[in-house]
Amino acid sequence: MAWTAGVVLCTGLTTALQAGVVEDAPPPKPEPVTISELPLPPTAPADTPGSCTRAVNPRGTGCISASEYGLQEGPGAMWDNRHVLMTVTFTGAPAAPAPASIYSGEQVIAIRLDGTKFPNGDPWKCLTCGVPEQNRRGTLITANPMGESDAHGDKEALAPRMPLDHPQAFPDGKRVLAGPNVIDCGPHELTSTACTPDKVRIFPVRWGRTPDGSGPGSVFREQRLNPDGVHMNWSAFAPSPGGVEQFGYLGKLVFNPKPKMGEPNVPRYDIENVYLLLNNTDPTFNQFSIDPKNPKKLVHNEPRGQIGEMRGWTRDGRNVIGMGFPEAGNPDLFITNLTDGASHRLTRDPAYTDPMMMSPDDKWFVAMDTRTTTRHLYYSAMQGIPPLTDTLTLPIAVCCYNDGNRRFFQPILIDAKGDRGRYRGQQLNAGPGTPGSFSDPDWNGRADPAWSPDGTRVIYWQALVTAPACGEGRKQPCPTSTAPGGRRTRLMMAHLTSRKPMPTRKVTPKPINVDWAIALRPGDPLPKRPLELPAGTFVLNGKVAGTANVRVEYHPAGGIKTVDVRYTGYTDDGQHIIDGTESATRAKPGFLSPVVWQADLRASGVQTGTKKTSPGGFVLSFRGPEKGELVTTIDGREYRSPPVSR
């Protein structure tokens, strides 16, 4: 079934979105979009062994879970313009030695985009089901990619598993990067009939960090394959004086058929020529630095090296995309040039944005973004505030971008010049919001979107709001799924019908050298990240007018204790003018300690309004709001923080 999406430009849900001075290029015209749902394996009636019977799937090729975990991280477009990859959770399989027993657990499937079917009659093919154990040696791990992140409470090791998240095709069509593994069918294309389970090999990817090459590799997450099929970038958590931090990396994948050292000691891919994408020697790479001509002045630097969490590559393979924090409460996407570290801001909307994909010609991108809701505007709607107290508040506040497992993303199409003026892109699945339809707001986008190599189609997946984010104790009852079998996930395709297919772009592998970053050799200790803010009392001049008087205090053991700011006519763009006071205090050191946020701010210029906390402040932690309230009012519209219970 296909639907025609409403042709609507996102021009700002409120006047809070009239963000400031960016490129003067006129916005693109909205374009027609047709939305269709892609086929998936049948839905198991229950997650119990044997529930996937021949009555449910007559071909005996498996069923996926009806739960919100039926689909996993993905999708990934294949280079033939005919298939898309998706990680799914098979369930209900019979016990071995039944042939259908192989359709169990987390697996990667390839799905036809053109409505045709594989020779067995299915519109999909499982690429990893039934691969013999000897063909996937060394792929079971117990390490947790979130293991250094106390914020997520996941320090414990996990049960042995073979992660297959974020499947991404190599340009040769014969290999797929999925989690810390490469799925390889030798001389055969993975989607061909010649590629049978006994011909598939799954090789682990090892990131060696010990000086002599011994031991297991380090754990990484959010891996993204370069379009050249040779390089990869990723993120990884690390302990820090304040609790935990995250770095972005890139390196080269090299097949090692006979390793001499290191675990797993099996044929594998090693990551070589690793760069940690941080500059800790040039102060201009810092968000804020002390003015070299006046030690009592702070400088808010132009964005450089804005990596944050790694989000991928430009499709020419020469630049990386990451998260940056250019203004208070507003994480945004940046393209960072690997030659000089300069960062170009793509998004400016005060909503939360995260997963994204550039178009094949790098002239557009699709972001999974929350700009169709007002959920985050209580802390971000007042724009033009420098991210000073954000050093304490933002890592906690952005945790509210979800509600348990519920995200509030929808796919937004934006040209590469980014948000500007009142242009905020085009919601691909805009529509009346009818329950069960492609525009139903209870179906929320997840990570990541994918773009067909010919530039005409965008594939994304969604999950239906599920308890405890609805139902008992909530205003919203849990909706009934109208997807096949009551499934609470679905895979969608947006066809950009006015676009002509472009030739598949081929990226020739070339060495990547990042002179401004840190070449990280095995055994090198992780570098110290520069202080987010220096300790002391400073004046920060607005780039156009006004001042901010800033006081920063650290705990003796490390980590910021207090940031206190008074704004007087402060403006960086001449349009957003800020007056008033704000502060953030973490009384005890440690990432999990609560923060008390005090704000009494006034906005004038293109926005008028206030940003205020309740008496005693707004107390929040990674568990969510704990006490008090933060209310932002812009041009007469009020945005309140989520209830303390959420």
From TrEMBL:
Annotated signal sequence is 1-19
State the source organism's domain of life.
Bacteria
Q: What InterPro entries does the annotation carry?
A: 6-blade_b-propeller_TolB-like
What are the alphabetically sorted keywords of the record?
Signal
Q: Where is this region: Disordered?
A: 22-53, 423-449
What is the designated name of this protein? Translocation protein TolB
Taxonomic placement: Bacteria, Pseudomonadati, Pseudomonadota, Alphaproteobacteria, Sphingomonadales
